[in-house]
Structure formats: structure tokens, C-alpha cells
Amino acid sequence: MTLELDDLRVRSLGECRYDSPFAEMLATKRTSPHYVHEDDRVLVDDTVSILLSRGVSIDELPSLETAGPRRKIYFDPAATNVGIVTCGGLCPGLNDVIRGIVQELTEHYHVAHIYGFRNGYAGLTRRHRERVVELDLHAVRDINNDGGTILGSSRGDQDPEDMVDTLVELGIHVLFVIGGDGSMRGAMKLTKEIDARGLDIAVVGVPKTIDNDLPFTDQSFGFQTAFAQATEFIASVFVESQAAENGVGIVKLMGRHSGFIACYAALSNNDADFVLIPEVPFVLDGPNGVLRRVEDHVRRHGQVVVVVAEGAGQDLLEQEGRTTDASGNTKLGDIGLFLKQKITDHLTAVDLPPTVRYLDPSYAIRSVAANAYDSVYCVRLAHAAVHAGMAGRTETVVVRWRRRFVHVPMELITSHRNQVDPDGDLWMSVLEATGQPATFGA
Ligand SMILES: Nc1ncnc2c1ncn2[C@@H]1O[C@H](COP(=O)(O)OP(=O)(O)O)[C@@H](O)[C@H]1O
Ligand SMILES: O=P(O)(O)OC[C@H]1O[C@](O)(COP(=O)(O)O)[C@@H](O)[C@@H]1O
Ligand SMILES: [Mg+2]
């Protein structure tokens, strides 16, 4: 991917003139293996050959602004009002992020007010303005123990003018948007309207996706919790299929365009024999098609476990009448039920009448509370987001990239999808673990 330094430069509302509450703590800090100074930058690339292929001097290499507290900040904390909104599908850790933001703003920055908007962008519109809640330490005390989001969420377009009216009415200086690619596109429409009116409001994003489909982030928060949940379902169908004659276990997992959950869940306990993901097309019929491979497996081992991501094999399904959800996301055909039928029909036809155990855990993997690892990740993202907002960064998201917390322009995070690379080492691990062929088909 071609990347200029300018593509990676994040926007600031202006000069930072206020002392940060962290100024003293930062006074003597310099870049070390464990800390990146605010004036230093983090490289985008991490292999010698990629760096060399850029063909530019070290200071021109694509690099990212480091996240974290600044010595000077843009907003005067005592006069700062903050808003928080969670949008799109649920994800483990949303409450941890809300809690982390509120705690950091309250305990360290002592901001004036923190408002929570209810049910996504809808909560910012005139119609729902009266549902805004004030957030304090008490309101977020133990919310990390619960899945979901205390603020609620939603899909569906809202009018940016209407939403900015609300920000103005409440005197909001920093809005934190916790959401996925759609939410970040929505946030950019907000900043456009904010700019058009010449307002001094920062919009900072915390990227959320259980599909792990956002770029410039090692792994999105909640992903680890989600795939760990998914693992349990694969283990169940494995046990069931093992106990049955010609046992077939099929698990359909979330992942619209990216098969990360399927890959990680399958690798975690190694019970899966076939993993089907959107990034790797497959055919069902013919000597090298999925059905014959599944049949061979059942003949040799007496059972088979198939893990399929919801976005896999969409080309095999009837496309007619394909609709979108309220946010414009294409509604997918049900590849899980389709495969179940096809495998059942095929095995029956070749005299291996199967016992099929089909599970679609669906929301069960994303509605749970974050595990300890994700909780740590969430609170650190929350801290980074607060520092970015108080320093006047806008149209910016905070991410962890190659283990460093950094700032990325919103535009870049929505520029493309993070997907499993069929030539990459993750997919290679899946092929090694399952023993499935690299391709199905001719
Ligand atoms: N291109 C867009 N412009 C403005 N708002 C958008 C856009 N795409 C999505 N949104 C809004 O962002 C919110 C979340 O988007 P959605 O796609 O549902 O989830 P996610 O943020 O998880 O991808 C919804 O309210 C949706 O209407
Ligand atoms: O919540 P809905 O509308 O049923 O949509 C389900 C979709 O949401 C996801 O969980 C996540 O999608 P977003 O992060 O884009 O909201 C997908 O894996 C899944 O396809
Ligand atoms: Mg999305």
C-alpha cells in the first residue's frame, strides 16, 4: 500500500496552551523500548524489505503519531464538556471503554461534564435529546462486569446538522465515538459539519469491531473475547460429531467480510477440519470441491467439523433480492444453513447418512463481558482516546499498531478493510492445523 507521511498526519484543533495534569510525570521521559515520546513517531512497517522498498529516507518513512498524555493540552479541563456515544453492532468491552473514558476524564482531567448519548447516533438527534444521561464515577462503577453497552447502540443514518445542533446545545467540546467503520464514516460527516460552522469541537474515535476488519489495528478490542466464546461452540459440535455415526459438526461464526473469528476460533482448539472464510473462495462440487473433501474426511475419520464465517461463499447463494440493513450494510445469505443442507444431501447420496449438529452462536459471542485481556486493552484505549481529545486531536482514532498506541486519521481507518490474507501466515497456520487443501476447486 502506498502511504505518504501526509496521509498519516492527524488533525489538531490548534496549539496546546494548557498545562496537562500529566506534565510533571512526563517531564523526564524519553523514547525507550517501553515508551514512545510524544515528539517521536512509530513506523507503519516492520520488516527490512518493506522499509527498503519504500525507497525514502528514515524521516520520510510512513509513521504514526504516538498516543498518550501530552505535556500541554488544547482544552481547559475545568471548562470542558465531553460526550460519549456507542454505535453499530455490540462488541465485548464497550462498557470497559466507556468506564475508562469517564474515569480518566474525572480523576485526572477533572472535566466539567460528561454526557452519554443513548442508542448510537440516534441519541444525538433532536428527537432523543432529552434521553442524554450525565456520566460520573458512580454511573460507571461496575459496568465492566456486563456485556453490551450501558448507553445502548443503533444502526441507521442520522442528520449531521441535527446532531451538531445537539453538541452545540450541550456545549460539548470533545465527542468520543466508539464504533466501527460505519460509525467512523458518520463521525467524519460530523467533523465536516463542525468545520463548516467553524466550531471548536474535537471528534475522537475508538474503533470497535468483533470482526477485526478495521485496518491499522493489531487486533480490535473484544475480538479475543469473541473468538474465545466461539471456541466453545466448536468444541461442542466436535464432541457431538465424535459420538455419532458419520457425525458432522458445523459452526457458523460472525465475520461479514473478514474471517478472523473463524480462523482464530478454529486454531484455538484445533477441532476444526475445514475453515471457510470470505477471503478464500471455494466450490462445493467436483473432485476437489468441499463436498468431496468432507466426504473423504468422514470416510477416513468417521466425523468432520466445519467452521464457516457468515460472509464466506456468498457467491454460491442466490443473490436476488439482496437487501441492506439500516446502516447500508448488505444483508448476507445464510451460508451456514446452505452448507448444512448441501453436506447432508451429499453424504446421504454417497451412502454415508450423516448425523448433523449445526450451531449458529450468532450474538452469543459478542454480547458477553470482555475477558481480562480485552478489559486491559479497552482501558488503555480509553486513556489514549482521552489524551487525544484533550490535546485537541480531531477526526482521529486511537489504535494499537504493532503493540504501540498511536493516532490514525479517521479517513485512513475507513479506507479499506482488514482481511485475512490468503498468502499470509495466519491462513497458513489454519491450513497447517486443519490439513485442508489450500484451494477447493479445479
Ligand atoms: N457512510 C456513512 N455516513 C454517515 N453515517 C454512517 C455511514 N455509514 C454508517 N453510518 C452510521 O454509523 C452508525 C454505525 O454504522 P454501522 O455500519 O451500523 O456499524 P459500525 O460502526 O459498527 O460499522 C449508524 O448509525 C450508521 O447509520
Ligand atoms: O447486529 P446486526 O445488525 O444483527 O448485524 C450483525 C453483524 O454485526 C457484526 O457483529 C459486526 O458488525 P459491525 O461491527 O459493523 O457493527 C457482524 O459480525 C455481523 O454480521
Ligand atoms: Mg461495520
UniProtKB/TrEMBL annotation:
Mg(2+) binds at D181. The record marks G182 as: Important for substrate specificity. Its cofactor is Mg(2+). ATP binds at G89, R155, G156, G180, D181, G182, S183. It is found in: Cytoplasm. Pathway: Carbohydrate degradation; glycolysis; D-glyceraldehyde 3-phosphate and glycerone phosphate from D-glucose: step 3/4. Its main location: cytoplasm. Residues 81-388 form the Phosphofructokinase domain. It catalyses: beta-D-fructose 6-phosphate + ATP = beta-D-fructose 1,6-bisphosphate + ADP + H(+). Its EC number is 2.7.1.11. Homodimer. HAMAP family: Phosphofructokinase_II_X. This is ATP-dependent 6-phosphofructokinase. The gene is pfkA.
